[in-house]
Specification:
The protein is an alpha+beta fold and 389 residues long. The chain contains twelve helices and seven strands. The structure holds a DNA duplex (16 and 16 nucleotides).
Length: 389
DNA sequence: GATCGATTTCCTGCTT
DNA sequence: AAAGCAGGAAATCGAT
């Protein structure tokens, strides 16, 4: 049974990954879209479907797919919130999210690149709004936003407390790279008790930088007693690799056994647990950044929808699952598995048109009575109202 | 460690 | 012919 309120558990994988290059600033920078699919689809679909202006997809959607490792600085610890720059704010948010048990992938840090002076004035609703992104379970985002807001208020309260007790505390505003030892000395002098008391909101007992062995270890792919390494290799079966004549011959000689080749595709790494396929589709459909540019309602009253750019939807899904090999063919197979439980139903004769079934995610219509665009999303096990401005 | 659900991967055959 | 659809088979992975 699908649990649409399934929590988005913390993904520890990232802790063991090597440093990644800086996050691309624009969607164009992502490899998956470098093949010019938008142009190709634009011309292809213009013959079949009504066309929409090419919309710049919001990079925030990819926030959890793009590294946030560049925001691992600690300067914010030694400044008051008002003195934080954008990087400090993001570093703090990522740290705070992890400290309260969320994954950094849950944080749309793109939406929080603001100076501390702006952050400290943010209301709970504003933080919630910035936290809402399509690829993270809304319940998780909601809880995370609450936690971040509480933590921020706690930090601000502590700062006020410190201001009153200037003999106890003074922020170190020096360059941490030049004066690391000084900073450390100050913290040592503060003592653990002091940190527990005065840094309560940001105190982290466990050092996450300590590597834990075993994770992201793909060495178990080395041995395959069922298939030869040759036939099991992704290069042999992979669709991305052009096939030479030799490879065609190999295909004739080695019939691939049914099933998923061991060690094929992406490197084995802890997959972030996120939304289910139907929920992912619903979220896209409820987001104006994707509806109608890549997916749209065909008949909303019966929850029927159409893929405008199926490959891009599949790529989004693949990025959500850390799987660069995702295709619409595979994605649609995952969708078809939901026919059995009537979460999705097929729409015969129509191509690229699907429909949520009676057991599909519940989608309420937008509430037109409120001044802004209100979208109420109810999961099967819980109900949450999310307001998009 | 066993089991389960939800995929993921690849396949064959069919339809549009 | 190409793309999409349907569904079988088996592997994988996270959760319990």
């Amino acid at each position: 049974m699908i649990d649409y309120a399934r929590p988005y558990d913390q993904n520890m994988c990232d802790l063991y990954l090597p440093p990644a290059p800086p996050a691309p600033a624009r969607l164009d920078d992502f490899q998956v879209f470098k093949k010019g699919t938008a142009y190709i689809y634009g011309s292809y679909y213009s013959n079949t479907y009504e066309t929409y202006p090419e919309q710049e997809l919001d990079t925030a959607v990819y926030h959890n797919l793009v590294t946030s490792r560049e925001y691992r600085r600690e300067e914010w610890r030694y400044k008051v919130v008002a003195d934080w720059n954008e990087d400090d704010t993001v570093s703090w948010i990522i740290d705070a999210a992890q400290t309260v048990g969320f994954s950094e992938y849950d944080v749309p840090y793109y939406n929080f690149k603001v100076p501390g002076s702006v952050l400290r004035m943010m209301k709970r609703e504003e933080i919630l709004r910035n936290m809402m992104v399509v690829n993270v379970d809304q319940m998780v985002s909601s809880r995370l936003a609450d936690a971040i807001f509480e933590r921020l208020q706690s930090r601000l309260s502590e700062e006020q407390y410190r201001e009153r007790d200037t003999s106890v505390f003074r922020y170190v505003e020096s360059d941490p790279y030049q004066h690391t030892e000084t900073v450390q000395t100050v913290l040592d002098l503060d003592s653990l008790d002091h940190r527990n008391r005065l840094y309560a909101s940001d105190y982290r007992p466990n050092d996450s930088s300590v590597p834990v062995p075993g994770a992201c270890d793909s060495s178990d792919d080395a041995e395959d007693v069922f298939r030869s390494s040759e036939t099991a290799s992704p290069e042999y079966y992979g669709s991305d690799v052009s096939k030479s004549g030799d490879e065609d011959d190999k295909r004739k000689c080695f019939k691939r056994p049914p099933g998923r080749p061991k060690g094929s595709g992406r490197k084995v790494c802890k997959r972030p647990r996120s939304v289910s396929v139907p929920e992912f589709l619903r979220n896209l459909l409820l987001d104006s950044r994707y509806n109608p540019s890549i997916i749209k309602w065909e008949d909303r009253s019966v929850k029927k929808f159409r893929f405008i750019k199926p490959d891009e939807v599949a790529k989004l899904w693949g990025m959500l699952k850390n799987n660069s090999n995702m295709t619409f063919e595979k994605f649609s197979r995952a969708m078809r598995y939901h026919y059995k439980q009537s979460v999705l139903v097929s729409v015969p004769t129509a191509r690229l048109v699907y429909q949520f079934g009676p057991k599909g995610p519940d989608i309420s219509t937008a509430n037109s009575s409120c001044g802004q665009t209100c979208v109420t999303i109810k999961s099967e096990t819980d109900a949450t109202e999310i307001v998009y401005s």
